[in-house]
Amino acid sequence: MIELRNVRKYYRRDGRVKTVLQDVSGRIDTRRAYALLGGNGAGKSTLLRLISGSELPNRGRIIRRGRISWPLGFSGGFHPQMTGKQNVAFIARVYNEDVDRAIEFAEDFAQIGMHMNMPVGTYSSGMTARLAFAVSMAVEFDFYLIDEITAVGDERFAERCREAFAERRGRSGLILASHSIGTIRDYCDHALVLRDGELTYFEDIDEGVEYYRSATLG
Q: How far apart, in whole angstroms, are the C-alpha atoms of residue 86 and residue 191?
């Protein structure tokens, strides 16, 4: 279970305040699959970072129970001077996973070849995202946070991502932030719509999609 208690998040830029969450409270069941919908700039990626703990709210609390992933594709946890293998080994140790198994899995999944032995700071953005996704799959989580990660790489890699999630979906929950209605209907049963600092929950995915469309187009 993930619980948000009066969570407020805002940024100050150029003398202006941009509010992402306005005193939001609610619970997210980590056994379920949610679509996270919202217009450009609504704060979907920020919300995922808050839930993961990689960013803190300005006010309020977020309580997490179970193993929650970082936002897939978020590479802030990689040390740029360490190699891909060294980064995988470090993350595996943090989550008490078998290091050799995690490295073997990440090498096979990311398919970046000799770059696994090179500093991550030398990677292209695509290679970094591939490794981030591979490490996410190498660690078993109760709940996955996904930010359009299936768009990373070529179609072959995207298909590997979809297959991996289909397999994990049987035993883990997720939040998927995406603009693709087809994608969220493939993966999700419920919806969270972020609009004007408020987070609205919909039990039925189609009702959530309709609300999102009307809010975006209207």
A: 37
* CA distances in angstroms from 156 to 126, 146, 161, 190, 213, listed in the order given: 14, 19, 9, 28, 30
Residue 83 — pLDDT band, cuts 50, 70, 90?
very high
Q: Domains of the chain by range and CATH?
A: 1-67+141-158+168-218 (3.40.50.300), 78-140 (no CATH)
pLDDT given for residue 192 in this prediction: 96
Are the beta carbons of 176 and 146 closer than 8 angstroms? yes
Q: For 165-191, how does the pLDDT look when each residue is reduced to its tens digit (9 = 90+)?
A: 778 777 889 999 988 888 888 889 999
How far is residue 75's CA from residue 120's CA, in Å, rounded to a whole number? Answer: 10
- Give kind and range of the element (H or E) at residue 146: strand 143-147
Helix (H, G, I), strand (E, B) or coil at 67: coil
| DSSP letter, residue 75 | -
Question: pTM here?
Answer: 0.81
Query: Is residue 82 pLDDT above 90, yes or no?
Result: yes
CA distances from 128 to 1, 12, 123, 198 (A): 30, 29, 6, 32
